[in-house]
Amino acid sequence: MSGQPLELISSDPNVMHGQVVVRGTRVPVSVILDCVAAGMGVEEILGEYPSLTTEGVRAAAAYGALLAREELVPLPGGA
């Protein structure tokens, strides 16, 4: 992927009510991450959302990883 993966992520109040999406699509990053969490592979995700690219799916994963480093969410049974 050329450039920074997060360049493919955008938020615009006029697109999907400001949700974070893959640039040039109306596919929210959260939907892509839900697909990954459900065990879908990149090809399956692209089949469900043809406006996406492999780079877009990877950018969504990079955005999710960035949030995981920045946000602490209490987990059940966590110490």
Describe this structure in words.
The protein is mainly alpha-helical and 79 residues long. It has a single domain, classed as Winged helix-like DNA-binding domain superfamily/Winged helix DNA-binding domain (Arc Repressor Mutant, subunit A, Orthogonal Bundle). 42% of the residues lie in helices and 8% in strands. The chain has three helices and two strands. The chain has a two-stranded antiparallel ribbon. The model has no long low-confidence stretch (mean pLDDT 90).
Describe the SSE topology.
Blueprint: E1 9-11, E2 20-22, H1 29-37, H2 42-48, H3 54-70
Antiparallel strand pairs: 1-2
Helix pairs in contact: 1-3
Notable characteristics:
single chain, 79 residues, mainly alpha, Arc Repressor Mutant, subunit A, two-stranded antiparallel sheet, 42% helix, 8% strand, globular
Q: What is this entry, summarized?
A:
The protein is mostly helical.
Radius of gyration: 13 Å
Give me the number of helical elements: 3
Tell me the CATH topology: Arc Repressor Mutant, subunit A
Ends: how far apart? 38 Å
Residues in helix, %: 40-55%
- Secondary-structure element order, as H and E? EEHHH
Mean pLDDT reading = 90
Q: Could you describe the largest sheet, including whether it forms a barrel?
A: 2 strands, antiparallel
